Each structure stands twice: as C-alpha cells, then as structure tokens.
Amino acid sequence: MFCLCLKIAHLAHARRNCNNLIFSPKCNNIIVVLRQIPEDWKHVGRVDPTEKLELTFALKQQNVDLLEETLRRVSDPDSAQYGKQLTLEEVSSLVRPSELTQKVVRCWLQSHGITDCLTVHTRDFLQCTMTAEVAETLLPGSKFQRYTRDSQSVVRSSAPYSVHDDVHQHLDFVGGLHRLPPKGQQELSKASSNRRQKPGVHLGVTPAILRARYNLSTTDVGTAQNNSQAVAQFLEQYYSPADLAEFMSMFGRSFQHHSQVDRVVGTQGTGKAGMEASLDVEYIMSTGANISTWVFTNPGRHESQEPFLQWMVLLSNMSDLPWVHTISYGDDEDSLSTAYMMRINTEFMKAGVRGISLLFASGDSGAGCKHLGKGQNSFRPSFPASSPFVTTVGGTSFKNPYKVTYEVTDYISGGGFSNVFKMPDYQTSAVDAYLKTVAATLPPQSYYNTSGRAYPDMAALSDNYWVVINRVPVPWVSGTSASTPVVGGMLSLINDQRLLKGLPALGFLNPRLYKLKGQALFDVTEGCHLSCLDEKVQGKGFCAAPSWDPVTGWGTPNYPELLATLLAE
C-alpha cells in the first residue's frame, strides 16, 4: 500500500546531538555544473527572499554496488536467484544512508533553521521547504530566479551552488535548482512531441491494427487480480476519463477491457486533456486490456519542484506498485549532471530488484545532433533512454502504409550510444556483432561512443495512431510515446499469465531479452533514422540490420511467441 511521506521524527533527537558538529564556513565543493538557461525561457526576475521553495536532497546511499549485483542476479534467467525479488523493506535495508550521513545532513539543515522536511521509506531523500533567502544561504552561489515559457512558470537558480565541505560527501545532488523542463522533441512527457500531422489515405493505427500485427487475439486480455500497470505523466499533461471511455467505445469493442483508470496518484488538472497523456493511457489500456491501470500525474506542486524527480521519490515510498511502468520522457544527456543521472540510475535499480519493469521511449530525434563548433558535430544521446537499467523502446512504420505489412524503421526513432554509461555486459555481444556487420556503412566514429550503453532494446509501431482527445478522434499521431505503452501493455499481459502460474513478474527485462537473441520478435532490417544535417553524415544516423541495431533494438513483439518464451520459468 501507499506509505505516506514520513515527518522526520529524528529532528528533535538531532537537536540534542548536533552540538558536536560544527559547520565552519567552508563551501568549496560545487556539486553541480550549471548549464546555460535555454533561450526559450524568459527571465522574469529574482524571487522574493521570503518566497517558499521546496528542495529535494538526495542522500548518499549504501551498498550501491551490491544493489547492482542483486539486480543482475534476480534478472538473469541463468542465475539461481532469478525472480527472487526484494520487498521495499529489503531494498531500504540495503541502500538506506548510514546513520552518520543522515545525522550530518539533518544537522546541517537544522543549523540553518530548516525543520519542515519529509522523508521516504528508504531514508535516501529529504524534501524540505524553506524561504529563498535561507536556500541561498544554505547553498552558497545559488541565486533563485523566476522563468516563464508559454503558460509555465518555474523557479530555478541562475548560478551554480556549492555545499559545505563536511556535507558534500553525504549528498548526491540537490533537486529543484537547475533542471529546466526541456521542450520540443525531448519535452517531459512529450518524447513524441514532433507529431507529424501528415495527409494521406492510410486509415491509421488502432488497437485492432496493433492486435493484427502483433498476433494478439481478442481473448488476449488480463484476468489476474494481482496484476497492474501504470503510466507517468508530467508538466500539465492530463488524461480525460471521458476521452478514455469514448476511445474504448470506438476502438475496444472486440475485446474485454476497462474503460476507467483504477487509480490516480497525484493531482489531475482541470484543463484540456493533453495529447501525450491521452495517447499513453488509451494505448496501454487497449493493449494491456482488462488490466488494472494507474496514472501517476505530477505537474509539480510548486514552481521549484522537478516533476520527474518527484515521481522517482514516490517509487521509493510505495510498498505496492504496478509491475509495468511506461514513461515518455527524455532529456539530452549533456544537459544533465553526471551525479544526477548516476543517482537516477540507482533509483531504477531499486525498482528493478523489486520486480518492476520500467519502459522509456527512446525519443523522436533519431541519433540527435550536437553542434560542437567550427563545423564539428556529434550525435546526442538521450537520458533515461540511455540508462542501462531500463528497457528502451524505439519506433517503426509499416512498409506499406496502406496494409498491415512488415515493419521498417521510423526515421524519428531515437537510438545510439551513451556518452556517460558504459555498455552493460548483457548487450556487449549483440552490439559488437552489429558494429562488425555494418562496419562499412557506419557513421564516422567521432560522432558516437562505441563503448557506451547502446539503445533502444526493442520497438513497436510509432507512426499514424488514432487518439481521442477532448472527445474528438484525432488521426496521424506519431512518436515513440506511442510505441512504448504498446510494448508495456504486452509485457503486462505476459505478467498476467506468469502471475496466474505463480511465477514472479518479469522485472528488469533486458538481461533476459538479450539472451533471447531476437527469438519471438519480428526483426526490423530496413531503414535509417535521422541525425546531423552536415556534409559528413547528411542527416543519416544509424541503420537497421539483422538482429540487434541502435534504431529498433531486437525488433517488435510477436506476442504469442514472446508469451510462450517468457512463461518459461
């Protein structure tokens, strides 16, 4: 069940035990390097010193290496520990910050008069409310400003911050200072924001088309009582219950389904429904049909909150969670601090060892492009798509746009190689084989890091979907935010059958997926995705090839075969 955030009962105790901790004025450790404020954000001005902010303190965890090893063992089908997943309490016991770390951070906050804090079950996050004046004193160098974009307003620091030398070693980062919500193809909950409203006679992708292509019958629906799935939505993205009911009435008549979300975690907005939110909910519920579905919605209760980080904190504080989560979110890797991404990776591992499958859209910018200056460019990987601890979903199109045919690459499908995370062992042989097979046609190696985590892991149709939004059927909606909930729904159906057999949920899928070597998936071998428009690559990134490739992964699901394969213990 959901565990409410716990008030820090230790603060009174800390007051009696902080006298021996003296924080001298040494703050030389800059914990985050500030990125330039994007031009699309308008600077309004400094916030009032008395304005309240909410900051998130990520405390250093213990046993992160052991956590990663545990995840490997419970996710590897060849391991004796496969499927022996941990409870939230067991995860908490493993990673909970040391008593010293908790005490130092609490005393540091208390020394600045900060006592209005909430913690989580795992004790590795603190969310504290304070005035802007106190925050700037706590974090020397920070200067809180208000920025607006369209109708959105956020409060962030315009300068890098530092923390006390004695505290630096006990913190991973402080959230709520620098990360601005991205826009365009990488906007939060809009990994498929580059929507192509193109004309044509194709009737478009519907639940019936998806079931025909991926061989789901009308009886492939959920029945297990202990199964559930979820989507996460951010930044003023809301689904409409009326739209969902209308969508199921129009497109779900041939199979048993739910027409309502069973649980909303967070606050639903009252404005118009968002395209992204509608797409996510309608397609996870029509593919993973008749399965209890949750919606995590977090627009950010305060301008200083980071909605994606708030969702991650929630996962650390809920003992009962859906088994499959699909998320359409992405930032450029180079827009984030390494410390932030490493900590988010640990949060992904915490979810994986509990048997939770996290699926992220690979993005809609192909290989991406970063201009390095002097006519030099490089590809631009996206995070969390590049995380080694999530399953990343790319996109495809029908070869013949008028028929249910085989699939080719959707040119927007995000993919490539991380510049931050090394290639995980589970995929080295598959990626090495790809690099050798297509060596003659690869882009110049100066554009990408061949030793980095390669993505995506698999794919599904991402082109020309029908969505009901504000009670109106809308055609030609495209992007990997479409393919991700479709794959998530199919994994939920497989979980359903596993749970009925008394088997554990699939959990972190990648180690098992790569050992299948393409078995039970439709291999996608045609097409390339987009990249830099320059003389060297001329807009072409990587291309699909037999077996795994960094455009469509291992391919798209052949549901009956994938079910049979993954039902094996």
Automatic annotation (TrEMBL):
Cofactor(s) listed in the protein's UniProt record: Ca(2+)
Catalytic residues, chain numbering: E276 (charge relay system), D280 (charge relay system), S481 (charge relay system)
Molecular function terms, GO-annotated: metal ion binding; serine-type endopeptidase activity; tripeptidyl-peptidase activity
Record's catalysed reaction(s): Release of an N-terminal tripeptide from a polypeptide, but also has endopeptidase activity
GO biological process terms, semicolon-separated: central nervous system development; proteolysis
Superkingdom, taxonomy of origin: Eukaryota
Enzyme class name: hydrolase
Keywords of this entry: Autocatalytic cleavage, Calcium, Disulfide bond, Glycoprotein, Hydrolase, Lysosome, Metal-binding, Protease, Serine protease, Signal, Zymogen
Chief localisation class: other
GO terms for cellular component: lysosome
Classification via Pfam families: Pro-kuma_activ
EC number from the UniProt entry: 3.4.14.9
Record domain Peptidase S53: where: 204-569
Protein location: Lysosome
PANTHER family hit by this protein: PROTEASE S8 TRIPEPTIDYL PEPTIDASE I CLN2, TRIPEPTIDYL-PEPTIDASE 1
Function according to Swiss-Prot or TrEMBL: Lysosomal serine protease with tripeptidyl-peptidase I activity. May act as a non-specific lysosomal peptidase which generates tripeptides from the breakdown products produced by lysosomal proteinases. Requires substrates with an unsubstituted N-terminus.
Protein name as it appears in the record: Tripeptidyl-peptidase 1
Source species of the chain: Sparus aurata
